[in-house]
Design goal:
The structure is a single chain. This protein is mainly alpha-helical. It has helices at about 5-25, 30-60, 60-70, 75-95, 100-125, 135-165, 165-175. Keywords: Membrane, Transmembrane, Transmembrane helix. This is Integral membrane protein.
Length: about 180
Amino acid sequence: MDPAAYGPAFLPVIALIGALIHIGVMKHRTRERVLTIALLWTFGVAVGLSEVVTAGSHFFAPAATAAQIGFPAGNPFQWEVACANLAFAVAGIACVWARSLWNGTAVGFVVYFWGCGVGHIDQYVNHGNTAPYNWGPIVVVVFLVPAVLAALLIALRMTQHRAAPAGQHEQADLVRS
């Protein structure tokens, strides 16, 4: 397999390593703190920085990026995809500072990436597209990173819900509604 196919996995792996090191050096580990650190690294690096790179490739090297996906150069899809990638780059990086953005960013990222994943599978099955950024590690990345993000966020919310005093559950539910 083409080594370039592993490019999309690079930053999610960096996020995982960063989170594991960060958690490893923490003095006071609680389930909530561990999940929070994992989410900060996931939002900041696996979503934010990864999407900066992806948006940049579509904006600044569109012909090469289209070739890596197995599409013709000059296709107008790239501008729209680049803007979507840039939106998630901004949202992911903003999540490092604004936890109020976590739920919406995670839901949007799951929908966008899983939709892209279905498109990659369709391109492979129905059109034989085996280009490195259409088929191979990219398929794992587009399904696994959002799944991990969602699982971490759900685990954090469940942990916080269990830890909240009884009277705060109703108040927290109203705020989330």
